[in-house]
Amino acid sequence: MALASGPGLTVSLSARLTRQSGTSFYYAFRVLPARKRRAIHALYSFCRVVDDCVDEPGGEREAGLRRWAEEVRHCYEGKPGTELGRDLAEALFEFPIPRGCFEDIIAGCRMDLTTNRYLAFTDLRRYCERVASAVGLAAIEIFEYTDPRTRRYAVELGVALQLTNILRDIAGDAARGRIYLPQEDLARFGVSDAELLAVIGGGGSTPAVRELLAFQAARARAHYDLARDLLPAADRKAMTPAEIMAAVYRALLDEMIRRGYPLGGRVTLSRPRKAWIALRTFVRSRRP
What we know:
Elements: H1 13-21, H2 26-30, H3 34-55, H4 61-76, H5 83-94, H6 99-114, H7 121-143, H8 150-168, H9 170-175, H10 183-188, H11 193-200, H12 207-230, H13 240-258, H14 271-285
Helix pairs in contact: 1-3, 3-4, 3-5, 3-6, 3-7, 4-5, 4-6, 6-7, 7-8, 8-12, 8-13, 12-13, 13-14
């Protein structure tokens, strides 16, 4: 399926969905050659529509998850039944993405239907590995890694990215009745659900809440550092898109820290800043 590069050319559904989403990963995708870009658009779009099943008003919830699980099966059989499925099947024809990645992504989204609190970080990590690390393990197949150790890099980077998402989206998640910050961490800093929700609602932050959020930020930073250390030298160039994702999200984390973890609004980076980070990371990846 062709990607548009001029008037009159068709654009795949997954490319349109990716462009419309405003994802921070856009610039990471742009550095890929066309065949890989088509595949990563299909993967990203699948993740978006599955996530929308459980997060968006009017989402199909469990019925939607079952429907997309069935569509994944059809894609692996070469018989997709939807336009997005056809984009995904094309990606599966070109790249050996394990079916378990899609099963884990769906299982992670299903957790959002049944779980709104996490007792310990080990429980939250399991969620992060399903909704984010599984995506990373699928993506590195598209990026064509060569060293098996790169799989560990993908897992840890996925955890880091998801922890950053959680810190950024505390208010939006709370509006859906979810608190992803582990209950053991709230107890450690003497913060109750009610206190955290009051701060989110504009009741004014407290030293305990700020310490709690700083602890979560430090944990995310540690996973970025671990992922960086795990990336084998042989795959550094191939993982340039992933490193751009990491650089953009780490800058987002740093911005949240600089602003004092504002819970009243969603912290974002400007498009020029994201483009500059992507360019800088791309140039560094080409150095010996």
